[in-house]
Design brief:
Elements lengths: L41 H9 L17 H15 L1 E2 L2 E2 L2
Antiparallel strand pairs: 1-2
Length: 91
Amino acid sequence: MSGYELPYSSDSVATNTCLSCGEDDDDEENYNSCYDNDDVKEVCQNIYQVSGKCESYMWLAYPNEAACTYIEGIQNEMELRQKKIDGKRFL
């Protein structure tokens, strides 16, 4: 041990702060997106477009179900981690 503190060992890199995806008409950082008539910031549109989706139970004409298996796998893993195995809880 050298005595150096690891970065982010006491503070998280991520925050719990939410950012709005709604755009303001005078938002200079979002200039091009201000004039596209959808009131959603371009960065939010881009993130949504490339995100995994499971729209199985949504009333959409063409639901995107490409990530349903992946999301179900994560849910199953989390459920398994919550169950007791041999009387001991594991993480």
